[in-house]
Write a structure and sequence with these properties.
249 residues; alpha+beta; N-terminal domain of MutM-like DNA repair proteins; Helicase, Ruva Protein, domain 3; four-stranded antiparallel beta sheet; 4 helices; DNA-binding
Length: 249
DNA sequence: ATAGTCACCTGAGCGC
DNA sequence: TGCGCTCAGGTGACTA
């Protein structure tokens, strides 16, 4: 039961939105869609995103707040579900009724670890598209969950050059890519995410060590498979890494 | 409709 | 030691 809340800084990616209607309401379910956490109450759903630096922790009621602890959800048990987000790229918003109706959720693509995601999904979406395959892979309207780091990693595993026009890639190659996406994400989840710089997982521990990455952030270093120097380019305003030898397609 | 760019924000890392 | 600059990420908004 949500007995109350405290918003110290409402200025996240969008203004923090917790309606009075939720006071005293019981949590019906906790779920997830793409990178959005969904906390369902009878009147509607709180939609929480951690951006890239956010974390949620359960702390004691009198635990002093620290820097960047922006939102507290006060639970009936006396515990507090506390959102910390240094970069403030996250959000806490609300959708009455059906959560999927929210503008942030309604046009999202398929889940990468679900059954609907396949090479066929990508091939279909890529039809006639000239955009770089990496950008297609990161387009949340097609498939969700593939961020900048894992996009480079998956393309490496599939042997596909990031800048190739999406529409020119074969179904066969897309099947390899879909499989690579599943492998990369499943492994990253198992390892607790990727740690770069100051980013830590919710336990405050570093996750998937950067030294396990094949290409991301390794510009100028030797490919772990063939020794060729890893190259970097910019696609969609994001740094992109690949091995010129292992990625020929 | 599609493709490309910009913006948001903070802390780390760098050169001086 | 301290300052100022650049960069990174997720993803919606905006411009051609």
């Amino acid at each position: 039961m949500l007995s109350g809340w405290q918003v110290r800084n409402p200025k996240l990616r969008w203004p923090v939105e917790i309606p009075e209607a939720l006071r005293g309401q019981t949590v019906l379910s906790v779920g997830r869609r793409a990178k959005y956490l969904l906390i369902e109450f009878p009147p509607g759903t709180l939609i929480i995103h951690l951006g890239m630096s956010g974390s949620l922790r359960v702390v004691g009621a009198d635990d002093p707040h620290r820097k960047h602890d922006h939102v507290d959800l006060l639970l009936e048990s006396g515990k507090v579900l506390r959102l910390n987000d240094p970069r403030r790229f996250g959000c806490v918003v609300y959708q009455p009724g059906e959560a999927d109706a929210h503008r942030l959720l309604h046009s999202l693509g398929v889940e990468p670890l679900g059954n609907e995601f396949s090479g066929q999904t990508l091939k279909q979406a890529a039809k006639g598209r000239r955009v770089a395959v990496k950008n297609l892979l990161m387009d949340g309207r097609i498939v969700v969950g593939v961020g900048n780091i894992y996009a480079s990693e998956a393309l490496f595993l599939a042997g596909i050059r990031p800048a190739i026009a999406a529409g020119r890639i074969s179904l066969r190659a897309y099947e390899d890519l879909a499989q690579a996406v599943r492998e990369v994400l499943a492994y990253a989840v198992q390892r607790g995410g990727t740690t770069l710089r100051d980013f830590l997982n919710p336990d405050g521990q570093p996750g998937y060590f950067a030294q396990e990455l094949y290409v991301y952030g390794r510009s100028g270093e030797p490919c772990r498979k063939c020794g060729t120097t890893i190259k970097s380019i910019v696609l969609g305003g994001r740094s992109t890494f690949y091995c010129p030898t292992c990625q020929k397609a």
